[in-house]
Amino acid sequence: MKDINLNISDIANILTEQSRQEAWSSHHCDIPMPSIRVLSEIMISLRAVLFPGYFGLSKVTTKNMNYHIAAKLDSITSSLCEQIMCGHCFDCSGDKSGDSICINCEKNAKELCLQFMRRLPEIRRLLSTDVEAAFDGDPAAKTHGETVFCYPSLKALINHRVAHELYNLGVQIIPRIIAEMAHSETGIDIHPGATLGERFFIDHGTGTVIGETCIVGRNVRLYQGVTLGAKSFPKEGSSEQLAKGLARHPIVEDNVIIYAGATILGRVTIGEGSVIGGNTWVTTDIPKKSSVFHKDQPIIKSV
Amino acid sequence: MKDINLNISDIANILTEQSRQEAWSSHHCDIPMPSIRVLSEIMISLRAVLFPGYFGLSKVTTKNMNYHIAAKLDSITSSLCEQIMCGHCFDCSGDKSGDSICINCEKNAKELCLQFMRRLPEIRRLLSTDVEAAFDGDPAAKTHGETVFCYPSLKALINHRVAHELYNLGVQIIPRIIAEMAHSETGIDIHPGATLGERFFIDHGTGTVIGETCIVGRNVRLYQGVTLGAKSFPKEGSSEQLAKGLARHPIVEDNVIIYAGATILGRVTIGEGSVIGGNTWVTTDIPKKSSVFHKDQPIIKSV
Amino acid sequence: MKDINLNISDIANILTEQSRQEAWSSHHCDIPMPSIRVLSEIMISLRAVLFPGYFGLSKVTTKNMNYHIAAKLDSITSSLCEQIMCGHCFDCSGDKSGDSICINCEKNAKELCLQFMRRLPEIRRLLSTDVEAAFDGDPAAKTHGETVFCYPSLKALINHRVAHELYNLGVQIIPRIIAEMAHSETGIDIHPGATLGERFFIDHGTGTVIGETCIVGRNVRLYQGVTLGAKSFPKEGSSEQLAKGLARHPIVEDNVIIYAGATILGRVTIGEGSVIGGNTWVTTDIPKKSSVFHKDQPIIKSV
Amino acid sequence: MKDINLNISDIANILTEQSRQEAWSSHHCDIPMPSIRVLSEIMISLRAVLFPGYFGLSKVTTKNMNYHIAAKLDSITSSLCEQIMCGHCFDCSGDKSGDSICINCEKNAKELCLQFMRRLPEIRRLLSTDVEAAFDGDPAAKTHGETVFCYPSLKALINHRVAHELYNLGVQIIPRIIAEMAHSETGIDIHPGATLGERFFIDHGTGTVIGETCIVGRNVRLYQGVTLGAKSFPKEGSSEQLAKGLARHPIVEDNVIIYAGATILGRVTIGEGSVIGGNTWVTTDIPKKSSVFHKDQPIIKSV
Amino acid sequence: MKDINLNISDIANILTEQSRQEAWSSHHCDIPMPSIRVLSEIMISLRAVLFPGYFGLSKVTTKNMNYHIAAKLDSITSSLCEQIMCGHCFDCSGDKSGDSICINCEKNAKELCLQFMRRLPEIRRLLSTDVEAAFDGDPAAKTHGETVFCYPSLKALINHRVAHELYNLGVQIIPRIIAEMAHSETGIDIHPGATLGERFFIDHGTGTVIGETCIVGRNVRLYQGVTLGAKSFPKEGSSEQLAKGLARHPIVEDNVIIYAGATILGRVTIGEGSVIGGNTWVTTDIPKKSSVFHKDQPIIKSV
Amino acid sequence: MKDINLNISDIANILTEQSRQEAWSSHHCDIPMPSIRVLSEIMISLRAVLFPGYFGLSKVTTKNMNYHIAAKLDSITSSLCEQIMCGHCFDCSGDKSGDSICINCEKNAKELCLQFMRRLPEIRRLLSTDVEAAFDGDPAAKTHGETVFCYPSLKALINHRVAHELYNLGVQIIPRIIAEMAHSETGIDIHPGATLGERFFIDHGTGTVIGETCIVGRNVRLYQGVTLGAKSFPKEGSSEQLAKGLARHPIVEDNVIIYAGATILGRVTIGEGSVIGGNTWVTTDIPKKSSVFHKDQPIIKSV
After folding, report:
1. In angstroms, rounded to a whole number, what is the distance separating the alpha carbons of residues F198 and F124?
2. Res E74 pLDDT > 50
3. Is CATH 3.40.50.920 the right assignment for the domain spanning A194-233+244-303?
């Protein structure tokens, strides 16, 4: 590409052309794309209605919170409904270049949004168990409130439990964006498809990855750098191609603890009550109430 | 929970009830909760007074910085004092539901805040040694200024050295929030209780965790993914329950280097001048001037 | 340091004095320092011209994007030119304390900025291949657009490909700041000096580090926690001191896959088409089309 | 004053000294002064609860407005209460320099604020009659809504009816600030002490002044540049000194129209149903159902 | 109305009920109301495209302005189109309570908006003559640019010439809102229906009012406090009721000057080249090239 | 002008061409134009240093104000210096199209700015007398502080006394912009050239105009709608053309009161201690201690 002496106008034309040529690279219909800024505001509001006082207006008390929750719920409903519609149109934007609002899309989005809003009390209930689990699981935690205020685990779980509901309702793209917001903020990367039971807690959390088809039981605790991933590493000679949508991530049963840096790959089951040690590499089923650790002993020499 | 046909008003009522039922879940007295937004502004201002020009107003020079530092210090004092009081009230909010400002709390907060402000020159002095250490420790660093501008290590240490002073003064909840801000921004998770000596440096840093009762000496360098944690992994058959507040994290003596991904657990001592290799797993004392590495050799096959 | 009874004014004076004493610690000439806020706005605008609709104004369509791209390019040019000049002055600020604008610096900055702008179409072309690679490489990706919207890999690569061009043009400090912005947002730490081929993809990405002198081929895929670093760990008894600027990071040839947590250190070459397994530790050349994995088997006991 | 060679620091010291020397010129106690910014936000919120949709959130409909009104009322209560207290402290700041919050002041402020909030429905009812009057009184008005959206009269009356209630409750300084906000926005200057009946309307309004002790009846219409002032102009030889607080402004009875530029001075009564012509100068009582006009005929010459 | 002991919730309910009861008082359909905030942003953008550099981005030069004008035009088109539709729905909101977007309304709004945009060059041409007139007409003006930057006349005329085009196109409510914005900012109140010729200038301007059916010729100059109004003042005994929409304001022919405080009422014609003196009261036709002044001589006495 | 079927791109081109064709209409060199936004921020800061607590940070007390004043003064100096330079370049932009920063301009601007800053204590002293005058002159004023907080007179005088100093220093365009800001906010239009003595007060103020060459003595009080203008109205047959820069506005001696709506035109002198009645029209010298009133008596009839 000869780029000597291009001026602003030329560069703009080339960039425009590049965006136009690729079907996926930008929008062809009049419905705007989902807006990361708007979705970010929605999540800020959702945090404020789920844990009033901790997030949003710090002056909220038990006496006056009802007014603010109702107002925020109304605003969330209106914004989220629009984003759900944008998300739907975005996903089909490569296929056709419709010019008018799809009436069904709009109706659909409203219905999906309403269904989601009705799930908020259940989301709140689950998060409340997560708060308990965090308090119980970290010797450094002094109050329940501290775990809401300061723990990346809870921030990641608010986003996840919201994204997971939207994912289950079949909402397009939006759940992924919400999950990635939490990933960016906390270093915890949970795919919205993952199913997480009550009382879930991830301590520290940076680098932990939980894959799309994971199923995690009740009262499970993870640490930083844990991977619950797909066994995509080809064994000797084999060529196992991962088909999309297959169950390919671990099942973790109730009351399991997985320490920092452990890697669990493939559709294996970690049995109830097991403890997986740090830095271990697990690619097979683990029986109930097992303890798994690695045998590696470092070599120590004097310098 | 039957959630068919709930409208905004119903959902708001349920969420409000949920927040009211749990003692910890929101505020019962009239003092507002600590505000993450305000604390975030305080940290922005503190960075600007500690490293004027790098953070805050980019036009500050050695000639005019005094005016801006003084004005910011005054604003910080006023905001921080309020947050310290909110933090105190927050921590006792579950126990009693007082309705009026606790006069002692307010006085206390002022006194604590003032004591903290007087420690700023010492915090600045320590951070200055950290800048030197970063410059000396990274072959890619070209100027001292670059390490202030671009290194996550310094950002994490500004927050830590501030949070640690507040922690030592007995300030509630606020130090944890400040620490978590740095964790979110840098991926480096240092508990405000940890004691870190001069000339501390963490290269890259993502995923590094330093526990509450760690004591780290002078001139220590860490890399990404290092854990200085508690040995909470139960040995075979044993059941060591971690009591809160016990010294449970490593002591790292002067001039130690710990490479990426090393895990050091429990109240062990890493002797002066030792080098801990990457990916090692250390749960015992290491003598002075040792070098520790893991013996793992990968298996290489042709595909 | 006796700090009893210091008031705001005293503390400001001490902090000012501390900043003045250290040559690096703040600015001595009248050119302002580079501004992280302004550079952050520049990156927001650059994302919007490279992927209009995804970033920036969500209402942009293929019909109207040209206007907005041109206007943003003009604003970017003006802001970036100023920052490049500030970056240059920053780097020489310790040496001399000039009082007037260096005319050559200003001219130079304009020329460098213009050269950078002309490289944008090439940057866009490379990123377009990265989008393809992300879509092909992740079974969870449903549309190309999703990889632009949600994948930290692409965000890190936008910043990197921009920073790398500026680095190649000899721009001071600015490339590092841009790289660190992506590091903070994604947990992916790529030094602006690293050379990355087409179709590059990092899945999840948290904790991945790519060093300054890395050379990465075409169609390479990485996962989270991968280190492409310098072999700074001293072997037994040896004392290899890393000289600045030497080629000290790996060469990764085309079509290589490196799984989560792998550590590759030193100026070694990973041969074309090889697969490096998770958690491996590689410090030697790897022949083409090899598969590397670690032999570690965990020990499993019942609790 | 010798001001050669003053630098920033000197100038700051002089300005500080000037502010300190004058009892009134700044604050001596720890309660902050009333904040114009906060009061401005309060008025924005009050407009939004009184005329939802017109002011504030444009998406509000009759279905969802209740949530937003309640949340805004709660926020207004909290902010206004604080400002009322600041206003009280401000007014006594010249007299004593108390250092602690006056407990009575705080209680008082809460009580006054609550009493004001309870008057909002009555304020709304009065404003509703003003809207009717504006629609009936201006041949250019096409809908009632237009008079809410576009008429300075209504904006001035919202502020006035709010300020008048606060004035009646004995709130210090705040009512004047609110009145001046409307003056700045509309050019209509109504003292908060003025008593205005239902269905009040001022067309165009710029330059209209209504004094503190005015009493205006029902269904009165004014135009721009009307003065309802005090007869402070000394007649020949006389020297009538205006004592503070005396009734010194006109009484305007029901159904009066006063055209542009009319000046009515002193405690005179404009009788029911009268019409005061433009540019007239009235300093005596006017009987009921009078029409008053000036006899001035211009002189016309050809140039 | 008994308002003792009302709490926030009760007050919110009453206010909601009040807004619901009055047909005009708020919105009944799902199309949001016109937004003063959005319209204000549109006017800021329109000023920036009509006089680039003076308004909006101060760095715009003749070289780069094209990009910014195009981008702003596109944004204006999109926002204005939406506001035009909201304005239409607003005006019919009292009559029916439609629930879905009127497809015709949307199409109509787009068409009207496009027609308006095409008139911008003509609006710019007219305003350019107004700038010339301001420079020629004020001995205090030193450069043409000064009249754009500082003269309320031009600000009022930008809004008026924009609002007048929209008014002519039949756009509802929006033109009035735009006119009132200028009124609030400048104290000059021009009804969007008024027809103003080239080279129009109002010096100082505060309090000047120009009515809906005024027709003003070329090169006319006004001063502050001038009223071009309707003769609504009933003559002795008469009862002339103003019918809506009738031509009821003055016709001012070319090259007329009207000095401060002059009042001209009714459908009279001020003949070409006439000069109307300050404070005069004119309710009859004035022949061409007349000079009109009032004969009032003040009485002077020594105190 | 044929405007059918123009699209955005065409309209942008025409508007650009229009701006390019007129010498005055936009900028030809690289120095940006003065920025109304920046100047507005400068005035906000200046108000805060002149009356700390009233404007700006409401928490400022006599104890801590020194820090904030110094920091603001430094920021003002830097911004104002830049605007002064922009103002200079703006005024010569029509004549030549220089491409580089005029070194002399920059130096000059710094010097002018510094001289202005040194005048701030004198400006503050004058304003302090204005506060006294406002308190003494308005029976409705209850405290001195109220006159600072609420009186448009003081806001207009802060801007005027600042603008007048800049005007005297020969600063281009900036003083006019500052004056117009006050005009827009208060309806009081004072040309920056006007010389106003101590203890100046304008009650209500809307519509008052004070011309460029006015000289006003000590302790003068004005009301709304007063004009101190040029006698530009041609007397019968005469043709007095106003030359630019001539002394053409009134001289008002000490202790004069001028009531609402009075018009004083031409270089006449209002003698010491005189009282000018409302609505009077004065075009001749008035002896000392005169009282002037108009003889107009309205005609009163019953309807």
Report:
1. 11
2. yes
3. no
